[in-house]
TrEMBL record:
Entry protein name: Uncharacterized protein
Region named Disordered: 416-437
Membrane-crossing residue ranges in chain numbering: 27-48, 106-127, 134-153, 183-211, 223-241, 274-292, 304-324, 330-349, 370-386
Sorted UniProt keywords: Membrane, Transmembrane, Transmembrane helix
Length: 513
């Protein structure tokens, strides 16, 4: 068989040249853990107010100011899905009830529920006999998706929408009775995915491959034409929105583009403490797995179980001894965005062998066991659980401390990089290591440019007496004119705090207009 024939088989037929041996129990455990984590995520956002972490402080401030579109999402017209699914329901609740705290809780809960919605959508589009394929989104979320837990990134929606969309395309021929409804689901899922985040382009080749492989089945050419027409319309709509809705804040657009590019650089991932911890454990486990058979004759299952325990012990020790995985959640988005399409490719090319007999005349496959990968999943889960618990504990401490300072119940001490508004003289030049809060204090989870907005969210009644800001990392996403135009009576924000923020922006911020 030549390369041309192999390429034709992989691209234009539904053939799966790989086979993963894994029992139904193994799939059940992984999918069960996936469901548990997806159910827990919105509860964590709700209980710890994670909607206020990092950039989320500004998003939440804009929601309370009744200016979500003007302040935030007009600058990201290609991310309408998050705006419509998470922000608009909270804004509607706020307009209906005037319940500011309830609107924030709803916003955070909806944001945290994205993986759960992705799981439910996958269940809806997968035929019953193909439910085992939930293995792939389970691994995607448990190993990679949890890297960004707490950080308000739209890439969670990109990952969550990718899998049901891939399944909807792949199993389109299997819904002859309800094809119209399945096609509607395809259009809806496609729209959510395309308008989730600009990085959705990384998954488009995999979705195109899934569509091309429809040609080998009954009515394949017609189905391929249907999928192509749907995505052509969606991508044209995406381009029209990006071109037609010009972002009003050029500085925000430039900063976001620069940040997106920086995340693709290897340094952003090599300096990630959680990935460093995972790398250390894997560097010990891989040689052990490869060398073990030379010295001890044990089954692969037993070897995997022993190494899984070793991975859990080593990971727990590193979690306890080494740093906090907090701000690095921002850079981890790149790992999620690249890993998800890679697993999507494996999903398309791999048949799951759960012990059932192969069809007669089935082509031989390259077979591999799931056992060697069990320690990797265990390692990831222990790291996520340990680092997640540390993050939630420190986030609660930081929120309580910032709230006390914003309410005037506690002084701001020991942090030369931070200041209070109103501020008199400009700060002296920052010395080495003075530009950012100390790593061994609750302030390490402060997000430099959103600190002023976070001061509102943690203050009693969203009315801070003082506003904390970073004196050396300045960025004003809201202009002086915008804050002047903000009608205090129509917001849930304290008048005194808004006046402090407005005076600061007008004196030191970006030019009006």
């Amino acid at each position: 068989m030549g390369w041309a024939d192999l390429a034709r088989r992989l691209l234009l037929t539904g053939e799966q040249p790989l086979e993963l041996r894994i029992g139904r129990a193994g799939i059940g455990w992984l999918v069960g853990l996936y469901a548990a984590a997806a159910l827990a995520a919105p509860l964590l956002y709700l209980g710890w107010h994670l909607e206020a972490y990092a950039d989320g402080s500004y998003f939440s401030f804009a929601l309370l100011a009744r200016q979500s579109w003007d302040y935030v999402w007009s600058n990201f017209p290609g991310r309408l899905s998050t705006f419509l699914l998470c922000v608009e329901p909270a804004a509607a609740w706020l307009a209906l009830t005037g319940d500011d705290a309830g609107a924030l809780r709803l916003y955070g809960m909806l944001f945290g529920a994205m993986p759960l919605l992705g799981l439910l959508a996958s269940l809806a589009v997968l035929p019953r006999h193909a439910r085992g394929e939930l293995l792939w989104p389970a691994v995607s979320f448990l190993v990679f998706g949890l890297l960004t837990l707490g950080f308000p990134t739209e890439t969670w929606l990109t990952q969550s929408a990718f899998w049901p969309l891939l399944f909807a395309i792949r199993h389109l021929p299997e819904h002859p009775a309800g094809r119209r409804g399945h096609l509607a689901a395809l259009v809806l899922l496609g729209a959510v995915y395309v308008f989730s985040h600009e990085a959705m382009v990384l998954g488009l080749p995999l979705l195109a491959l899934a569509a091309l492989r429809l040609r080998g089945g009954p009515g394949g050419r017609r189905l391929l034409a249907t999928v192509a027409a749907v995505f052509a319309a969606l991508l044209l709509a995406w381009v029209a929105v990006k071109v037609g809705l010009r972002p009003p804040n050029a500085e925000t657009t430039e900063r976001v583009a620069a940040n997106q590019f920086s995340l693709l650089m290897p340094k952003a991932q090599l300096t990630n403490p959680l990935l460093q911890k995972a790398g250390i454990v894997l560097a010990l486990l891989v040689p052990a797995w490869l060398l073990w058979p030379r010295f001890l004759q044990t089954s692969r299952a037993r070897r995997a179980a022993i190494l899984s325990v070793a991975a859990a012990v080593l990971a727990a020790a590193l979690v306890a001894a080494w740093g906090l995985y907090g701000p690095h959640r921002y850079a981890a988005r790149a790992v999620v965005l690249f890993a998800t399409p890679a697993l999507g490719l494996l999903c398309l090319l791999t048949r799951l062998d759960t012990g059932e007999a192969l069809p007669a005349g089935d082509r031989p496959r390259v077979r591999f066991d799931a056992w060697p990968y069990l320690p990797v999943v265990v390692l990831a889960l222990v790291l996520h659980l340990g680092e997640g618990a540390k993050f939630l504990r420190e986030w609660a401490r930081f929120s309580a401390l910032l709230g006390a300072v914003a309410d005037g119940r506690a002084p701001l001490e020991g942090q030369p990089s931070l200041g209070l508004l109103p501020e008199g003289e400009p700060p002296p030049p920052a010395g080495p290591g003075q530009g950012f809060p100390g790593r061994d204090t609750p302030w390490q989870l402060s997000w430099n440019w959103t600190l002023p907005f976070n001061s509102f969210l943690v203050a009693e009644g969203f009315a801070p007496r003082q506003i904390v800001h970073n004196r050396y990392a300045r960025y004003d996403p809201v202009s002086c004119d915008q804050l002047r135009a903000l009608a205090v009576a129509g917001t849930g924000l304290g008048e005194h705090g808004l006046r402090l923020l407005r005076d600061y922006a007008c004196a030191h911020g970006r030019p009006p207009g």
